[in-house]
Write a structure and sequence with these properties.
There is one protein chain. This protein is an alpha+beta fold and about 160 residues long. It has one domain: 3-Layer(bab) Sandwich (minor pseudopilin epsh fold). The protein is built from 1 helix and 9 strands, in the order αβββββββββ. The strands form 2 sheets. A 5-stranded antiparallel beta sheet has the order 3-2-1-5-6, with helices on one face. It is elongated and about 85 Å long.
Length: about 160
Amino acid sequence: MQKGFATLEIILFTLIIAVLATATLPNAARVIDRVALDYETKKLYSDLRFMQSLERMTYMKNVNFSNLDGTIDETDVMFIDPNYYTLEKTANSKIYYEHYFSSGVTASQNDGKAWTIKFDDAGRISPAISDTLKLTSRFNKNSYIVFDSVGRFRGGREQ
């Protein structure tokens, strides 16, 4: 009676595992790439919404409703670079946040330059821009955040 495995059985088992691994790894890399792109798009969109709500709260807190022509000296700013972005609340507040994109994800605009996004008192992008911010993954999948001419924005995947 034989105990254990024969050398041929071990070689065949190893060969089958290697074939299965080479068939599934490229698909796994694409799935991981898509998940990273979705995460970064949702994170950037969420941070834009956060800055928008922060500006609205600051406006409501500082407005003197008997005199609506007063000015507020605080500004919410987002700087978007190809590899990272920062959120800043200037003046008296102390919010500063920096986020680096996942490996392989980059942000770009039509002219390829870094962006500076400011929000007005109502929480709209100021000045209003009609442009698109494109996030690109390692496998050249794209996701967009679109800014319209009245200072709103929306985001999503390329169809």
